[in-house]
């Protein structure tokens, strides 16, 4: 009898425990509407206009029970006070519970990003547990609602796929920066460096004048013909103290990625003027061989920073028919040219950050921290105030990799003969 | 149903009601007497005991032994005795020889003759298939072993199939089984000790062990447990297993059951004790650990890498069987942020038209799979394939088309089901399949949290289990000196120790 009573007691525990405790946040997967991207615009007063890009799970599936003709996604925009209460407001229109589980892209209009209060709304994202910290922060030139509506990729019709591919590829080619929400919050809270968000637009902008058109462009300035999507992700939006202050070109974004001590720089494929023939250009791949070395002396007045950057350069085109592989003199000449040009570009940008932005986007402040024994001392040093006056030296070390798969070229004279 | 099960579990605690029984005392008294010198009396007693002539196959034959000038009778059961041998080597010499000699034994040209002097023993011998010869004025009888109980020959193993290695399996005759083991271990230290176990049917089991390896304490423990049984009848080993195991309500088996003589003898060589029994085409190996249920003999027959590869697959299969359905349920009801977007949308799209919640859907499908599996097992082989097609194809396909279940659930359940077949032992197979349901329910109620809790509890339970004093997860937890043949096996030349948890008399293998 005793063991029987015990058994019944244990059975009761197992039966009542689930019924009493309930099933917390149990929610069937198909009863949610998955938001892939959120667009934020400035509304009236201190309100936001929020745009939801909601994926349609049924789109594009071949189901035995019958497939659908529904569109790939649904877009709604409405005015709201914050990012969290909006989920319930949206249910006036959207039938299912709004879920941020798939949310990976936060698109903010330039107008909103430049307001002082922008940071207040961004901290809403830290409150909601479904908001992922690796959400990409994208700044759009036009209103985010327009950006989302206009964006209609031709081949990747499922929105999350399109964003996933184009942003990952953009980060790989270094045309945009790797900008997550987490990074935004970290840099803003550290109050020392600048943050780069992804910049994109669906509007056409006139390209800049001048012949150096290759990398010196902003989003919308790349001329593309044909029947394709209007959206371009190029360059980055510069944030200081949580507020957007400027936008950077592709070239500046790439320089930032190369000089960054936090992120590893990807292989950068770019073109430069040919040092041996004014009419042509050479294509090169720049690979960062090792992490950059930063030497800093905070005791000196002004503080000196020495950045050592070991690079490998592969020369991929040779329109002037120089035959670098077999010609050491020309190689040395090219090396000298490259170092000079890189130094020039780097110094130009650093000067811009010192004079115009009064801070740097390279994450160097992290190296300064270890020079101080206490946080208080570091805070007293005040990176943001000291940076504009610092003496920044860049030394570049270039190693040549290969010169294309076939390095040798025929002599032009013989061919033309 | 649950209540019924609980009732069954506790029914043994109830008082036994009074039944209108009839005492057998008179017959028991008769049987304990000595054999009568008067042949007539003997025959009539036996006729009474064997309910002659109602009992059809009991044979009484009276004749004269001329050389002794005495009357005699042979009693035997002709369905289990070899009449030909009786005629040729017993009756003929006794009838035809007219030279007067003193001894009957000399007339019989059969080896296995023994004297019995109590009626009970004579009855036992007749029941075994011997012919018992009663001679007038003798106070004993002669039991002549002529038993010819029909047997199946040694066939290949059907439930534990291997591609490489010996194919034969035990049969229902324990002497054949014993010879199969003796053929592998040619050693005088191999002991086959017979122990009578049941009160009414007189079943005998054989404890097979190697005298200079098996631990005495373990052996005595098993012997005591077997001798302590007070049961009328134990027909075969699966029944015996349930009588002697420690935790009868445990989910996990603690005695290994195999039909392969090669497996049995390799366990005997390691110091384990094997139980053989008539009417059982198999043997019990004790004590058993979790690992012995996880291993199959082919693991060692295959080359090191191949063997370990199958082990890895099997372990993976166990985890897939345990967890896939539960993980699916957990993900779709609690942790949708854990899956990649495309899969999430795919699952969401397929679930859109399904009327049932994911937990019920999976449980339903699991149940259907269980039914198909159980049904398929009992289907006569001639219509088996039809059922297979109906079960697997039509049911799954139609259920998906009717939007009753989503196709992903079919994949998940089928994967788990197929993987469950990689668990070789039938008892362990049941244990894993049953815990699978528990995992699904735990995961449906509390998500991964529930699964983790249940898994942890399961591990606690497994660690607490013992089989004849041997911890269930040894030699891994607790650690013992052994050949470390647990999850993976080692090279044969490195497997130099017998399992330490058995405390064998000789630890080192050569």
From TrEMBL, chain A:
It is found in: Membrane. InterPro entries: GerAC_N, Spore_GerAC-like, Spore_GerAC-like_C, Spore_GerAC_C_sf. It is a lipid-anchor. This is Ger(X)C family germination protein. Residues 25-198 form the Spore germination protein N-terminal domain. Belongs to the GerABKC lipoprotein family. Pfam families: Spore_GerAC (PF05504), Spore_GerAC_N (PF25198). It comes from the Bacteria. PANTHER family: SPORE GERMINATION PROTEIN B3. Residues 235-404 form the Spore germination GerAC-like C-terminal domain. Keywords: Germination, Lipoprotein, Membrane, Palmitate, Signal. It comes from Cytobacillus eiseniae.
TrEMBL record, chain B:
It comes from the Bacteria. Its main location: membrane. The chain crosses the membrane at residues 312-334, 354-372, 379-398, 404-425, 437-463. It is a multi-pass membrane protein. Pfam families: GerA. Keywords: Membrane, Transmembrane, Transmembrane helix. It is found in: Cell membrane; Membrane. Belongs to the GerABKA family. This is Spore germination protein KA. It comes from Cytobacillus eiseniae.
